[in-house]
Automatic annotation (TrEMBL):
It comes from the Bacteria. Pfam families: TnpV (PF14198). This is TnpV protein. It comes from Eisenbergiella porci. InterPro entries: TnpV.
Amino acid sequence: MKKTIFEEMGGTYIRYGGYLIPCLTLSAEEQRFIGVWGQRHKRYLKEHKRAVYITLLTSGRLDSYLADIEEQAQERFERIVEQMKQVQGITEQLKAEIQMEWVARMNNIQVCAREIVDKEMIYQ
């Protein structure tokens, strides 16, 4: 009997009833942390960039791609927060003297930094 292209490439079949079903498995991928940034980007890909999502998923590269996005976004977020703290003059001295003022200004900076990272990296 003539082999199919799938069999020629090393694929195998399982007989289930009267049917031959191909044995398909995804390659094992290393486990890496996917946090909030990665989850947001994943949801964006699923909803708005379906072809990219399916391509990454079926190629087995989705988790590593999302982990890379997570790392880059977190680094960018921290860098923006530090730069904004310096520009606005937020110091440890302010934190020690007027805690509520420091908390309010830091919250504002973090919200702004989150919006920047979302726009630049997550939802594009």
